[in-house]
Write a structure and sequence with these properties.
This protein has six helices and five strands, in the order H-H-H-E-E-E-E-H-H-E-H. It has about 140 residues and is of the alpha+beta class. Pfam families: SWIM. Keywords: Metal-binding, Zinc, Zinc-finger.
Length: about 140
């Protein structure tokens, strides 16, 4: 996890990771705390994790990005290192209105990391560059 999240969110994600490492499942208490801290993003993010919609894309140089298949069927690129997602909800509710800590896609990335439920995909440097540039072209 990164220090871009408030300490309480960081601590909760660490506790979830520890619980999943020890028992391979969470508790209702984690669910209620997730909803309290992350609000309406919590349940859809858990759904994305359950559907195994999060893929960690890695290049030989160690660069990584995450791709999340959203509930609409669109693929979004997320960067946990700088706490950013390419979805419209991130731009609007997180950046413009500051109504949320993060979107469901970024939360799904953090949760899939904590729960050990992240898909892994190794790609070449060129393929990773194409993935990143494809996002810019979609926005432009």
């Amino acid at each position: 996890m990164d220090s871009t999240l408030p300490a309480v969110a960081e601590e909760l994600l660490k506790e979830i990771k520890k619980a999943f490492q020890e028992t391979s499942h969470g508790t209702d208490a984690f669910f209620f705390r997730l909803k309290f801290i992350f609000g309406p993003s919590a349940v859809p993010a858990l759904d994305l994790v359950d559907q195994r919609s999060v893929t960690r894309v890695m290049s030989p140089s160690g660069r990584t990005a995450y791709q999340v298949l959203g509930s609409s069927g669109k693929l979004y690129t997320c960067y946990s290192s700088c706490h950013f997602c390419t979805c419209p909800a991130f731009g609007f509710t997180v950046l413009q209105k500051s109504e949320s800590l993060l979107c469901k896609h970024i939360l799904a990335v953090y949760l899939s990391q904590a729960m050990g439920a992240c898909q892994e995909l190794s790609v070449s440097e060129e393929q990773l560059t194409s993935i990143l540039l494809a996002e810019e072209e979609d926005e432009g």
